[in-house]
Amino acid sequence: MAFASCTFIFFLLLLPLLAIAQTDGRVAVGASLTAAHNASPWLSTSGDFAFGFHPTDNEDLFLLSIWFDKIPGKTVVWYAHEDGNPVLVPEGSKIVLNAENGLLLSNARGELVWKSAVARADVAYGVMNDTGNFAIKSRNSDMLWESFAHPTDTLLPAQIMKINGQLFSRQKENNFSRGRFLLSLRENGDLVLNIVNLPTNLVYDGDGPYYNSHTSDPANESNSGNQLIFNESGDVYVLRRNGQRSLLGTGSTLPTPREDFYQRATLDFDGVFAQYYYPKINTGNDSWSTVWYQPENICLRVGGLGSGACGFNSICSLNENGRPTCNCPPGFSFLDPNDNYGSCERDGELDCHEDGQISKEDLYDIEVLPDTNWPTSDYERYGTNYDEQDCKTSCLNDCFCVVAIYGGGSCWMKKLPLSNGRKNSSDKSKAFIKVPRGDRPPSFPNLREADDDKNKRNLIITGSVLLGTSVFVNLALIGALCLSFFFIYKKKLSKIDQGGLETNLRLFTYKELAEATNGFEEKLGRGAFGVVYKGTTRMSASGSRISIAVKKLDRVVTDGDKEFKTEINVIGRTHHKNLVQLLGICEEGEQRLLVYEFLSNGTLAEYLFGNRKPSWCQRTQIALGVARGLVYLHEECSTQIIHCDIKPQNILLDDNYDARISDFGLSKLLMMDQTQTKTAIRGTKGYVAPEWFRNLPVTVKVDVYSFGVLLLEIICCRRSVVDEEMGDEGNIILTYWAYDCYSEGKIDALVSEDMEVMNDTKSLERFLMVAFWCIQEDPCLRPSMRKVIQMLEGVVHVTVPPNPSPFSTIG
Ligand SMILES: *[C@@H]1O[C@H](CO)[C@@H](O)[C@H](O)[C@H]1NC(C)=O
Ligand SMILES: *[C@@H]1O[C@H](CO)[C@@H](O)[C@H](O)[C@H]1NC(C)=O
Ligand SMILES: *[C@@H]1O[C@H](CO)[C@@H](O)[C@H](O)[C@H]1NC(C)=O
Ligand SMILES: *[C@@H]1O[C@H](CO)[C@@H](O)[C@H](O)[C@H]1NC(C)=O
Ligand SMILES: *[C@@H]1O[C@H](CO)[C@@H](O)[C@H](O)[C@H]1NC(C)=O
Ligand SMILES: *[C@@H]1O[C@H](CO)[C@@H](O)[C@H](O)[C@H]1NC(C)=O
What spacing in Å lies between the alpha carbon of 612 and ligand 4's midpoint? Predict the structure, then answer.
């Protein structure tokens, strides 16, 4: 009795083991699996492979797949796909083995999403084979369908790929979406790797594949490749029709005995096709090891259309495992910070100043990267006896040039987007990358003075003299010339030391400006700081006359010269496409004049409130431009600048109707303490933030408030405050009226039922919500200008704003 019960207990203990041992991997018709976390899959006899629903990085989606079940991480070797695009299904989806159709995958609502195309409607059973192949067999054991015949990115031992067979890469290790790389066995017998355009799947083959097995023979077909074979003992080769084998990897280091290792050959997401092994007996810290990989250097082999092995504007270098590593060049960073294989974007835009007002050397620096090249982004080549310095200078002075590559006496100019970037020591070329100087002050003071013109004229004269004289005289002349330059330079330096200015601003004399403005004849307008006059001048001897706006300051700090210079230095160092550029100054006696570039299209106020309403598209661009300019002033320039008077009269429009902020950086000249409001309120009625009245510290958030009001004006094309006789009761104050309309769901009233805007209510609503966040009474609730841009662009979700002025009453 005791013996019997012992046997029984022993048998019970054994039962689970037997159950595993007894599975022959067979799946009966009618069997099914449901997608869920921890659902058990269909296992192969040995339990090495499993077929079932594999969870993905997206918690809610599963992938019908086959994986190595005994390996931690459960490496996926096959998944249900259409042309390489994975069939991802939600929890509750179901796979059934059906007598007519083989495998049927339906989603949680019972809709068919994928099926195996069986050869005949005669399914007897399925089997998860120990080779990792899921096979569907007929009653007389014919093969009706097998996963080995529909590979995704991986081949296993015993798997054969026929002519026209393909492997598709994934997006990322854990993102199964189709990637940019394709392996295919061509009709002619070549095994090739290509880059593919997504999402159209066009194969870029103009410059040839980036790997080619060269196993075709057009002269004698019987020498051409016919199959790609991964044989049981672990060799991967192209089998030719004549029986010859061309191994893919040479110098194989697959350890022995080979039966002790799992193997696979995968077209990885980085475009490399490689064979791997993994010990079947776990030793604790195992991983997949590489036997061989193709191509030998993916960074060098990719060319033609597309970005190359890495993204656009990126540099590919090969790591010690033969894998590409992608890096952004100086002045660039990854578009998606989480995607180290993606494209890089430029940190700031390079402005193209046409009229030589600012020398390129002052705007940009050149950074040198050795052994780097972007061979497919040329637009100009200089040669043949060009030197490095010529190459740098050519790039600096060429608007389109992003990078110049110098090598062997030639200089190649490269344009955006840079593609196929690579670093390789055998390249023997140097990359000169143009980067904005940023906030660094120029290396030495560089004030262009009025007598510049005279120097230039002297040079021209001496130049023509040089042409017609003897070597000796020339040498003497050159010596004299150098000396005179030395003295002129010294003289300049001493002048600048006195002035204490360290910018690229030109110093004008009062007389010059009086001439430029024809005796201060044409008045452009009157700002908070003084009257603005139109004028024209030459910024250099060779330059053509340009239009300028001259601002004669009428209220200037009494604290003296020093403060004025500090402020002008701050303003003079700002460079941004959404700011009006200060070109020069004049300080003579009591006179303080500022010389700005002249913008032809007037102020935003004239544009917005004029007879012809600008289009919605233009208005959104202007709003974004102002926001960008403010981000620069608040966060990006060397000294933070609070504008304090953002309003449509202070926004100018350039030739393209892009917004340019003017009058920034001047508030300190009015003896304003920017952190306390002991003196008069700065700013303009209707735009000033409540903290001005409340004795609260004044921060960049006052500009955010004014921007919010401006944004509402841009949206509604009306002024923030209208005359009482013109407005109805309730819409006199724009901010109140806009919020009322918004909260009552009547936003169409705000844009006077403008059809263009009403077709884009999503943007309209987003812009309104951003505006209400900006005009919150509590400065802490207002977003930063950077956040404002992200919200306006729709990059960041905008939450529903609270009532901006809950404590105020209309009055
Ligand atoms: C996978 O990559 C594709 C294409 O880049 C992207 O659209 C998708 O959101 C990614 N999926 C996951 C789960 O990250
Ligand atoms: C199943 O695996 C065995 C070896 O385990 C192999 O001999 C057989 O060919 C495989 N069958 C299929 C259909 O892959
Ligand atoms: C093709 O090549 C095979 C050997 O690879 C050779 O036996 C055969 O004669 C060749 N045929 C022709 C037409 O050259
Ligand atoms: C696999 O291929 C290699 C190289 O051609 C060969 O030596 C080996 O015998 C093959 N193994 C099997 C099981 O066919
Ligand atoms: C674990 O990994 C280290 C370094 O990769 C290696 O030196 C060590 O031999 C490994 N241990 C085992 C048990 O495989
Ligand atoms: C550079 O390219 C050569 C072939 O042109 C290659 O042999 C070498 O390994 C490459 N070096 C690096 C660091 O990529």
Answer: 80
